[in-house]
Amino acid sequence: MSPIYYDLSEQFLSSGIKFRYYGIARTVMEVGYELACSSADVRFVIFSPAHDRFFEVTPRIGAQSPTGACDPNISHEAKPLRLRYSFPQPHPVRDALYPFFRTIVKRICLKKWNRAVPPGSLREVDLSGQILVSIGRPKMMGDYLVAMDRQNIRPRFFPLVHDMIPLHEFAHPRQSMFARNFAHDNGIVIRHAEKVMTNSVFTKSEIEKFSASGHLPALPPVVPVLLPHELRETNEAVEIDTPETPYLLGVGVMTGRKNLECILQAMLHLHDTGRPVPNFVLAGAHRKRTDTYLERPELAPIKDKVQVILDPNQASLRMLYKNALALVIPSHMEGFGLPLGEALWLGTPGLAADVPALREVGGDLAEYFDPTDPTALAALIDKMHSDPAAHTALKKKIQSKHASLRTWKDVAAEVIATVSAPSTGA
Fold it and tell me: Which SUPFAM superfamilies match (predicted)?
């Protein structure tokens, strides 16, 4: 088989500490690690907006990588400024000014690159006819696909799509700029794809639904490649202390779609009905709207039960999972739901919203509740907190099924299999 070029642009174009342990960036680095360790002929590339070209990189993996998994091994100082390459609709003023701003941004990016990347240290790659696998965000894929179109470069493109959430009105109004850009970027990705991979069966059904409704183009074959439960152990130092009393854990839970409101209202219900209220540790990136919500007067009776831990590294996150009474993931919708899988991997009970993607992740190992009903979640919390026998039984059940849980190696193997299989049928 031809070599596989695996795209690490997600890590290069959004490089930094803040989000490297979470979501799409995590998926890119973890699959990259397993591909680097596999026997397949895999090479690694990044897209440079300074050159509108791809360059081959030699990633650091495992203990050599600051992420503990995989990174493109290029200086953070080379991180470029980003300017969209295309737009869903014409705009006379923007379109007239765009070439000028594009020229300025490219000059800045080239200066940053030349200062940070030794001359001749990275090889430019022509991906015409080559297999290109990307697991990053559609907006980044869309930009480099447009750039390659302008140069008549046509790779065999195999993207993985993570969700269609912005196309739902409760997340972003259908006519909002974000939703229009999201649909536009995904349209570019789909039109260029030989096959589309999705992170869950639910996301496959979503992309098919939005294609059928005309919000997205006609589809090539769509193949679910489910993400894993595994949370890799790294050699990082644990940087936090966990509470000594039992606590619930939320990872990346915010207001809105992620439904932090449900957890806090469930805790408030326990307080108001005289039931014991466990502590709640909220781990993830800083969100101003979360801070604002926690200051609401009606939450005063439970506010001292909430502890926020910002940007824990992977070792700290593992410890938070392992010591938690239970993980709570109350989202109205997810494309997959990595935190639920990670909790189960480490033997920790998961209390999950009863939505399709989380059912895929949790199977019969999680406890489910209606995300619109905080009292249903309160009952599950009370059960985990006040019924040691039930809590122990659930932990034993999870541990007994550990061998059936998916790993990042499984994901990488399925990516290779999808790319290798003939692209026939839908």
Answer: UDP-Glycosyltransferase/glycogen phosphorylase
Rounded to 5, what percent of the chain is helix, strand, coil? Answer: 45, 15, 40
54 with 71, same domain: the answer is yes
Do residues 220 and 317 both lie within one domain?
no
Q: What is the pLDDT of residues 65-103, one digit of tens each?
A: 887 789 999 998 999 998 999 999 999 999 999 999 999
Determine which of 6-15, 189-198, 205-214 has the lowest per-residue pLDDT on average.
6-15
Q: Are residues 317 and 415 in the same domain?
A: no
pTM above threshold 0.85? yes
Together in a domain, 131 and 254: no
Q: What is the rounded end-to-end Cα distance, in angstroms, of the chain?
A: 22
Domain boundaries, position 354: 247-404
Residue 390: phi, psi to the nearest 5?
-65, -40
Which helix or strand (DSSP H or E) is residue 270 part of? helix 260-272
252: CATH: 3.40.50.2000
Tell me whether strands 196-198 and 156-161 are parallel, antiparallel or unpaired: parallel
Specify if 237 maps to a domain: no
Spatial contact of 372 and 284, defined as CB atoms under 8 Å apart: no
**Tens of pLDDT, residues 303-360:** 999 999 998 988 899 999 999 999 999 999 999 999 999 999 999 999 999 999 999 9
Residue 22, pLDDT score: 67
Geometric angle at alpha carbon 89, from 87 and 93, rounded to 5°: 85
Query: Torsions phi, psi of 157, nearest 5?
Result: -100, 130
412 shares its domain with 399: no
- Is the residue at 234 inside a domain? no
Residue bearing the bigger pLDDT, 426 or 94: 94
CA distance linking residue 225 with residue 57, whole number of Å: 25
Helix (H, G, I), strand (E, B) or coil at 326: strand
In angstroms, rounded to a whole number, what is the distance separating the alpha carbons of residues 374 and 124?
Answer: 54
Which residue in 36, 119, 22 sits closest to 67, CA to CA? 22
Same domain, 43 and 143: yes
User: What does the alpha-carbon distance between residue 361 and residue 349 come to, in Å, rounded to a whole number?
Assistant: 13
- Do residue 280 and residue 358 come from a single domain? yes
153 lies in the same domain as 212:
yes
- At 177 the three-state DSSP class reads helix
Residue entry with tokens 């990516």:
415
Asked if residue 236 belongs to a domain, the reply is no
